[in-house]
Amino acid sequence: MRKKIIAGNWKMNNTVSEAVKLVSSLTKKIEKNPPSSTGVIICPPATALASVAPLLKGTPIEMGAQNIFWEEGGAYTGEVSAKMVKNAGAKYTLVAHSERRTYFKESPTVINKKIKLALANKLKVIHCIGETLEEREQKLTKDIVLNQVEWDLKDLTPQDLKNVIIAYEPVWAIGTGKVATPEQAQEVHGFIREILDAIFEPGTGKKMTLLYGGSMKPDNAAGLLAQPDIDGGLIGGACLKADDFMKLIKASEAASK
To answer: What is the pTM of this model?
Structure first.
């Protein structure tokens, strides 16, 4: 059985003190209602990782970074390496979030290098894929998803994929208030499993955890999480309030029963 996961991407929100306050609130709530079948991951800004990490000890919450650079180190002013975020306490890193693809023009080559470097540094990867509104309207969703999975994960092995989670995030549903219907999301998640079987080996898709990442909120989570190929959510705005994030964790728990 694949474990359900609710992961929160804080994006460029919260100072160190604000991050500590949010995590303190979240850990208290989780202590009262610990999840039994749902993994919980939070991805604060890089500036807050080292301050948040000690607060998570002894809790079921794991921590991820939002981004890493594609080289181990060197003259790359302003960048953060896999080794740095690992040392700060991160166990995961996001790679290829649509905002990285859009604003920073990250190519499949760059994304592939980041994924390999993360895995080499024993960081698990949450690999983000998804189409824009224009691509969906042109009926290119499956082409885009296929290309992203094929090229971003190029030369990885089935063993590598044990440390990779894929998050399908339709770009048109991120931060817009729009959301894919459960049926739309399920169709793409099922297709991703087919792609993984074709590219790697039969059965690969069934084993991998796939998250939905497009404006999942407490009021729409149940329908999405009830789908057979959706294993959880990569949460944006709703993860910035402890109460809302807890509601999503509870929704995942309910879907697991």
So the answer is: 0.97
